Amino acid sequence: AQTVTQSQPEMSVQEAETVTLSCTYDTSESDYYLFWYKQPPSRQMILVIRQEAYKQQNATENRFSVNFQKAAKSFSLKISDSQLGDAAMYFCAYRSPGTASKLTFGTGTRLQVTL
Amino acid sequence: ETGVTQTPRHLVMGMTNKKSLKCEQHLGHNAMYWYKQSAKKPLELMFVYSLEERVENNSVPSRFSPECPNSSHLFLHLHTLQPEDSALYLCASSQDATNEKLFFGSGTQLSVL
Predict the structure, then answer these.
(1) Measured between alpha carbons, how far is B110 from B69 in angstroms, rounded to an integer?
(2) Nearest 5 degrees, angle CA B99-CA A102-CA A21?
(3) Is the CB of residue A42 less than 8 Å away from at least one CB of chain B?
(4) What is the rounded average pLDDT of the residues B92-98?
(5) Does A44 sit within 8 Å of B106, measured CB to CB?
(6) Helix, strand or coil for residue B84?
(7) Residue B1 pLDDT exceeds 80
């Protein structure tokens, strides 16, 4: 079974600075998807960014980018120019290709953004 | 504005009560999901429905009973719950069961006394 590990329960960043959230995973599959989800106080999980394992290029969405290291099974999220609205729980997730969309989540990292 | 709406937002119930959680999606999706989110634990997938048929049931106790009357609505019927069932219950939908992009609701925070 796949596992996803987020070793940083909490992180803090100053507004306008850059922060990196860590995620590692364990799998024997060669093809899969990786995701970062954001859960603000409203509780709604929002997809931030996704990466397909067969693509070597790191995914980027505006201020959010990932560092995908397939051999190391590492998938970190970098947030540039941090904003107060970035404060939330961030969850890393893994999905195997298959007939049912089944995400395996990490335990999350709580990000605080300070002035 | 979310395309997935969950009600109620909060629910407190006793162990002998029967209650239901409701989820409605306005996105035209064909797959819907129930997840359980407990403090300091990863989200746990409970049920998956595709075109109103249950395609996955992750060893969930029978005191949780899902119902999917159509592709837009999903219910989770609760009866004789235990205090350890207290958690945030999240509903999600996707275009179909093979699509990895999930859209989540804001959840129902359940407390079992």
Answers:
(1) 23
(2) 95
(3) yes
(4) 89
(5) yes
(6) helix
(7) no
